Amino acid sequence: MIDMLILGIAGGTGSGKTTFAKALQSAMGDNCVIVPQDAYYIANTDISFAERIKVNYDHPDAFEDDLLIAHLRSLRAGRSIQVPVYDFANYVRTSETIGVEPRSIVLVEGILVLHNPLLRAEFDLKVFVDTDPDVRVLRRLIRDVQQRGRTLESVRTQYLGTVKPMHETFVEPSKKYADLIVPEGGKNQVALETVAAVLRQYLSDGKNRLTVAAREEN
User: Fold this and answer.
1) Which CATH number applies to 5-208: 3.40.50.300, 2.40.50.140, 1.10.565.10, 3.60.15.10?
2) What is the pLDDT of residue 13?
3) pLDDT means per 10 residues in the chain (218 residues)?
């Protein structure tokens, strides 16, 4: 086992959790790496594209949490991992992977990282990024059309059919497990500086003093 702090960053789609994670990584430099939950969508290589587009990607069952947990434990044990690469345009995991080496700080960000109690147990600190629903849906619309090759109609259908109800059923309730709730994500400079200060203190101490307190929840 090596000295490592694993921070879970959850929040609804378009909440700004990725921006928040990247800002923290920038502040921490080479001591920090991000592991996105999105990379751990179930492969779905054995079903057709027509079947893949019908999958509920906002349900906990859409993620291979067991693999993510195993990877986090490997990192904590000092071993490198191969993070999957997911093709969002085709709704399938590719054959490619990205090698990630252990770092003092590991940021795990995704909509449901605080839902699964087994995954939560891997985190030494837990953050929930809380943003107004109207802002989140507009951010998702722009991202999915510009970056993921989706159509406006497909985004609308997915949001109303699965994203919104799954947020209300699984994402929003997971807020209660957070040690810190951050309004407005990456735009909240005060929260960013506060969390960064905690991480810098951890690096300065050379050991994780947060583990015992954070692992008391079940």
Assistant:
1) 3.40.50.300
2) 80
3) 90 86 93 96 94 92 97 97 94 95 96 97 95 66 69 71 84 95 84 92 67 41
